[in-house]
Amino acid sequence: MGKTFKGISPRLRRFYALNKWGAFDPVNLLTLLEHLEDWENRKLFSLKEQIDHKINFIQQELQALEVPLIVVGHSIGSYMSLEIFKQIPKKVAYFIALYPFLAVNSESHQQSIIKKISRSRFASRLISAIVALLGLLPVRASAFIAKNSLAKSWSSTAIDALCTSVLKYHTMNNVLYLAMTEFEELYKEPDWDFMRKKHNRIAYLYGDDDHWAPLRMHDEIVKQVPDAIVEVEREGHTHSFCCTMAGSVWVARHVATLINKTIF
To answer: pTM above 0.85?
Structure first.
């Protein structure tokens, strides 16, 4: 009755039932909808819950750690790391913020669009479903699409991670839910008092053109925390430096230099 096609990934075959006319079987469409409903019912984690998770991990798994704990955060991970530092300061020896997203950039058109999408459950579900459908393609096909659209300069490792781990309904839904709670929380001013108090134990790295970590925030840190360790990367790497080999190597060397200078 039904038949399969060579080259179709196992994930896609679960939802394909082609009869002799080549039409989709309604039963399999129902199966797809049931999977979407299952994905929809999975837990979504807010910014606060993500921070609490990291703190619980440190307290439970690294309690007996005798060496200094160096926390490195990128983008919103920098905000999370700063909150971790504030809540368990005795456990953290040093904190490095890479292209840190510490406050909403009201001048960013991209952030405005992402904010509107993340606040709409319909838009979030629609985008998550589209991403999930792309994830059902064979990895070679989804990698080709990524390489020729949003990820032209990405390394093969980054593209593989995208296609195998990110192109999923629940993952994308969680990304957008987290973004919604980020915009709700980061409208406030950073905790300048804490940043001044710990100025010698925090280092910041900003990019030359980055709407998540704009240079005006770099200037504000210099103004609010005069003794802060703040640098600007002008090698042409972007906020998504970790998706390119050159960017990853440059930032890794920068972090290693900071650690050697400060800790040792």
So the answer is: no
